[in-house]
Design goal:
Order of helices and strands: HHEHEHHEEEHHHHEHEHHEHEEEHEEHHE
Distance between the termini: 42 Å
Number of helices: 16
CATH architecture of the largest domain: Orthogonal Bundle
Mean pLDDT: 95
Largest sheet: 5 strands, mixed
Number of domains: 4
Number of strands: 14
Radius of gyration: 26 Å
Strand content: 15-25%
Structural class: alpha+beta
CATH superfamily of the largest domain: CCA tRNA nucleotidyltransferase, domain 2
Strand order of the largest sheet: 1-2-5-4-3
Length: 410
């Protein structure tokens, strides 16, 4: 594992550079905060960040007693102070459960989140208020930071890392909790392959064994893995994890344990050449596009919906394999052409009124196993014409900024 850590663990030089930049940023911000205080949060605060990951979470804490009745106004209160602290910087305001801000400085992207300063989860008026408590718990209980880094990188390479809606995977915080719970990366994988649907991990032992689901809200226990937040017993920290990503993680954990490889920690970038090889004797539809601007989670969900929509529309061409990687979509299909006509099955013959309406729409009809039917001309029998038509549809156009490139091979 040393070879993996050499690649994924930040060097002493990188850590020092990031540390200095964060310190200067916080000092500058705090000088313009008369009634609040900026602190470091996220993986940077917990020392569980991967090399090259320069997204920095800064939490601006407002005193609970004075500002609890102004919870929804915290973003508005913070904004002018940010502008005062960084007058020459572009400050983006992003929508969330409570609006937050983004500032890019050199290679670092700072996300500044206004919160109420609390000492226990029950005091929170917004989910983000609890975040500093997460950092405190991880710093206290997760002593083996390298084991967390290995687990994070493995999940990243397995494409199950991230709780965003367009990923539906496992968050960095959940990985930290689980590795702290099991002790090491290898024990984490050994546990993963044994997980069954509705496996429960309760690190703080908030609930009696076998009685957790009774106490949790049903909406919070739909995920296949239930991780009780160690600082908030009412929260399933892994609620975002989908069944699909759960099964992928189990499969790849089993594969790695049976045959460990360095490449299992490598994020594989999809290239046009690799897709051509995968297509073999089939047809490859390759699309590059410009995403809309906005919050990454929202934009990502629009791209995911575009992919799902096109996959559904292309099913008649016999999809062999498909996928997407942010601004790239691809579909490997068996057919290039469809028959000039296809059979459209109408309502049962006994439904006279419905049959009458069907006959109005089709000149030539006939009976087919008790139903009225008609042969209908296929408007776009060729794959290239069909995909061009579908990409112009309103459903796609309102979810992407621009279609840059459409290529069909061979």
């Amino acid at each position: 594992m040393k070879a993996v850590l050499n690649v994924i663990k930040p060097s002493a030089k990188e850590k020092q550079q990031v540390k200095i930049s964060i310190k200067k940023f916080i000092q500058r911000l705090n000088a313009c905060l008369p009634e609040a205080k900026a602190i470091l949060g996220g993986s940077a605060a917990k020392n569980t960040w991967l090399k090259g990951n320069h997204d920095i979470d800064i939490f601006v804490q407002f005193p609970l007693k004075k500002f609890k009745d102004k919870s929804q106004e915290l973003s508005d209160l913070l904004e002018p102070n940010l502008k005062k602290a960084f007058p020459k910087k572009k400050i983006s305001r992003l929508h969330g459960s409570r609006d937050y801000f983004q500032i890019q400085q050199n290679k670092l992207i700072f996300e500044i989140v206004p919160i109420l300063k609390i000492t226990k989860a029950e005091q929170a008026l917004n989910i983000t208020d609890i975040s500093p408590l997460h950092a405190l718990w991880i710093k206290k209980h997760a002593k083996k930071k390298d084991e967390i880094l290995l687990a994070k990188q493995f999940c990243k390479a397995s494409q199950v890392y991230g709780a965003e809606s367009y990923i539906s995977g496992i968050s960095g915080y959940v990985i930290e909790i689980i590795v702290a719970h099991y002790g090491t990366f290898e024990k984490f994988l050994q546990a993963v392959i044994k997980w069954k649907d509705k496996t429960i991990i309760d690190p703080s032992n908030f609930y009696p064994k076998g009685n957790v689901l009774f106490h949790l809200n049903k909406s919070k226990s739909k995920s296949p893995l239930i991780v009780i937040d160690p600082v908030d017993k009412s929260r399933n920290a892994s609620a975002a994890l989908s069944k699909e990503k759960f099964l992928i993680l189990k499969k790849l954990a089993r594969s790695h344990l049976s045959k460990p490889k360095l490449e299992n920690f490598t994020v594989k970038k999809v290239t046009l050449n690799s897709l051509k090889k995968q297509a073999k004797m089939n047809y490859l539809v390759y699309i590059e596009l410009n995403p809309l601007k906005g919050k990454k989670d929202v934009v990502g969900m629009k791209l995911k919906k575009t992919f799902i929509h096109l996959k559904k529309e292309l099913k008649h061409y016999g999809i062999v394999k498909s996928g997407w990687d942010w601004d790239k979509l691809w579909f490997i299909v068996k057919k290039y052409s469809l028959p000039e006509q296809y059979l459209r099955i109408g309502p049962p013959i006994k439904m006279k009124e419905a049959v009458k309406q069907f006959k109005k729409k089709h000149k030539k009809t006939f009976k087919d196993n008790g139903n009225i039917a008609a042969k209908v001309k296929e408007p776009f029998p060729k794959l290239d014409d069909y995909i061009a038509y579908k990409l112009q549809a309103e459903y796609v156009q309102e979810r992407v900024k621009k279609i840059n490139k459409v290529m069909i091979f061979p």
